[in-house]
Design goal:
- The protein is built from eight helices and five strands; from the N terminus they run E-H-E-E-H-E-H-E-H-H-H-H-H.
- With 175 residues, it is an alpha/beta fold.
- A five-stranded parallel beta sheet has the order 2-1-4-3-5.
């Protein structure tokens, strides 16, 4: 079992909804390798954890790192076909959306915002300053490093934003 090298990094959780092909499920692989804690029910999400939600009103910012370290960072592993239904209900935790990034996974390569669970967690960790941990999660996948290469400039700009306005300006600059 692998463990996160940076002990100051937040714990990561994956809510496994089992809506996709299990052989392509990045969240299940993270859990299998001990790099994320698997959750099987929505009510298991820690109450104050940051939940990556593409429909959240607030964007994830570097300053969210203290909350993430204390309560964790959660990715919801669901099918892109069922995403609206999954996120329409009230989820526990503090919802945060990621700024625009390009996917590097083979299913959605170079599509904006079609990230796999591991890409979403890695993006969140990178933006909050846990770059080594983000790279460690992605290292499980042969295309993982491509995510960091493809998004190097936006990720760096996002990791420097201190307000929602600065994040929106950085996002506009790249997308």
């Amino acid at each position: 079992m692998n463990h996160i090298v940076d002990s100051s990094a937040p714990r990561t959780f994956v809510l496994l909804l089992r809506q996709d092909d299990p052989s392509k499920c990045t969240a299940a692989k993270l859990a299998r390798f001990g790099l994320s804690i698997p959750l099987h029910r929505v009510r298991q999400i820690p109450r104050r954890a940051l939940v990556l939600n593409p429909f959240a009103s607030q964007c994830l910012l570097p300053r969210d790192s203290a909350e993430a370290v204390q309560h964790g960072l959660v990715a919801i592993d669901c099918s892109w076909e069922k995403i609206r239904g999954t996120f329409i209900g009230r989820l526990p935790g503090l919802g945060r959306r990621l700024p625009t990034l390009l996917a590097s996974n083979p299913v959605n390569y170079a599509k904006a915002q079609k990230l796999s669970s591991v890409e979403a967690l890695a993006a969140g960790l990178h933006i909050m300053g846990f770059k080594a941990t983000a790279a460690q999660l992605l290292a499980l996948f042969k295309w993982g490093q491509t995510f960091l290469t493809l998004n190097a400039e936006p990720l760096e700009a996002y990791s420097l934003a201190t307000t929602e306005d600065e994040m929106a300006k950085a996002e506009d600059e790249f997308f």
